[in-house]
UniProtKB/TrEMBL annotation:
Assembly notes: Heterodimer with POLE3; binds to DNA. Component of the CHRAC ISWI chromatin remodeling complex at least composed of SMARCA5/SNF2H, BAZ1A/ACF1, CHRAC1 and POLE3; the complex preferentially binds DNA through the CHRAC1-POLE3 heterodimer and possesses ATP-dependent nucleosome-remodeling activity. Within the complex, the heterodimer with POLE3 interacts with SMARCA5/SNF2H; the interaction is direct and enhances nucleosome sliding activity by the SMARCA5/SNF2H and BAZ1A/ACF1 interaction. Within the complex, the heterodimer with POLE3 interacts with BAZ1A/ACF1; the interactions are direct.
Keywords: Acetylation, Coiled coil, DNA-binding, Nucleotidyltransferase, Nucleus, Phosphoprotein, Transferase
Organism domain of life: Eukaryota
Major location (coarse): nucleus
InterPro entries (alphabetical): CBFA_NFYB_domain, Histone-fold, Transcr_DNA_Rep_Reg
The protein's name: Chromatin accessibility complex protein 1
Protein function: Forms a complex with DNA polymerase epsilon subunit POLE3 and binds naked DNA, which is then incorporated into chromatin, aided by the nucleosome remodeling activity of ISWI/SNF2H and ACF1. Does not enhance nucleosome sliding activity of the ACF-5 ISWI chromatin remodeling complex.
Residues of the Transcription factor CBF/NF-Y/archaeal histone domain: 22-84
Positions of the UniProt region annotated as Disordered: 1-21
GO annotation, biological process: chromatin remodeling; DNA-templated DNA replication
UniProt keyword Nucleus present: yes
Statement: the UniProt record of this protein carries the keyword Transferase: yes
Pfam families: CBFD_NFYB_HMF
């Protein structure tokens, strides 16, 4: 993902009033239905969730900028998954995202860790 941080407000002034970016209702419905816990979606809940995406957009922007500023891609002007995962791990504000943005590990490292946990559990019994 390419990132650019424009510190001047010239683009904001030139465009006049900017329309806020939000997800279409159909996309929000699709995201909500992707959860196994959701069986049906109330229209009012769908509408309010769609409106909330405006505020969430600000949150996503804050997460992306924090990750970019603290990440390794400043030289190449990029934002990587590992930048996001590190921000989630290291920043108290974003710590609740650690389950959603876990640090990547190699499959072999995971299998070794799993095997070690099983051995420890076997030794306890």
């Amino acid at each position: 993902m390419k990132m650019s941080h424009n510190s001047s407000g010239k683009d904001d002034q030139a465009s006049g009033s900017k329309k806020p970016i939000s997800l279409p209702i159909s996309r929000v419905r699709l995201i909500m239905k992707s959860s196994p816990d959701v069986s049906s979606i109330n229209q009012d809940a769908l509408f309010l969730t769609t409106k909330a995406t405006l505020k969430q957009g600000l949150f996503v922007q804050h997460l992306a900028l924090s990750s970019f500023n603290n990440g390794s891609g400043k030289e190449t002007n990029t934002l990587s998954y590992s930048d996001l995962a590190n921000t989630a791990q290291e920043t108290d504000t974003f710590h609740f995202l650690t389950d959603i943005l876990p640090k990547k590990i190699l499959a072999q490292d995971y299998l070794n860790s799993l095997e070690q946990m099983q051995e420890e559990q076997g030794a306890d019994y």
